[in-house]
Structures are given as structure tokens and as C-alpha cells.
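Long-time lurker, finally posting.

We've been working with Ejaculatory bulb-specific protein 3 (Papilio xuthus) and I want a structural starting point before designing mutants. I don't trust myself to interpret raw outputs, so I'm hoping someone here can both generate the C-alpha cells and explain anything notable. Sequence follows.
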Amino acid sequence: MKLLPILVIAACVVMVKAGTYTDRYDSMNVDDVIANKRLFIAYVKCILNKGRCTPEGKELKSHITEALQSGCDKCTDRQRRSIRKVIKHLIHKENNYWNQLVNMYDPNKMYSKMYERELGTI
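Top reply, 14 upvotes:
Generated this for you. Predicted structure of Ejaculatory bulb-specific protein 3:
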């Protein structure tokens, strides 16, 4: 009988975890990726279907529309911080790629305007 409470707690942890995206790539250093223009552009081209994708790129690409539309509800805290950094960098330093991503994933600009207002002034 002592095992039952442990199983219930484990089941709850699994259910809560199922409500978020995988944290498998959360240890990736986004600052290093942003600082390496060649690597950063490779990820962007993957997401734009203009280049090959790493496993990380494929994972990101598979969730980008849902994350954009939901305000990243299923993202971990680390993923939210990383996404804010990347979007800020795109808006300020790689605006051409930002516009291409918006045209692909948010053609009606329903969600991207919010990010531009919030992160464009930072």
C-alpha cells in the first residue's frame, strides 16, 4: 500500500510534464547560437524550409505555430526566455529573416505584432 501514493505522484508528474514541450534541448546556449551568425542563419533557414534541419531545428519547427498562437503556453521557462532573446535579435539584427518568418507562420500578423511591440522597444 505504501507504493500507491508514489505511483499517484509519479502519474501526476508525468501528466504535468506532458503539458509542456520537451526540455531535451533546454541546455542549448541560445546566446552562443545568436553570436554564431552561420549557425543562427542555418536554424532560421531550417525553420523557413530553405535548409537542412538538425534534430533541435526539427523539434522547434514542429511546435512553432502552436507556440506562437498560444503565447508559448507549453514552453518551459527557459524556452520562453530563449524565444524572447531570439525574437528580439531577429527584430533588431535580422529583420529580413524576421519578416520571412512572419510571412510564413503569421501571414495575417495576428501574433507577430504583439512580439514586435513588446520586444521591438527593448
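Before you design anything, note these points.
The two ends are 55 Å apart (CA to CA).
Confidence is low (pLDDT under 50) at residues 1-17.
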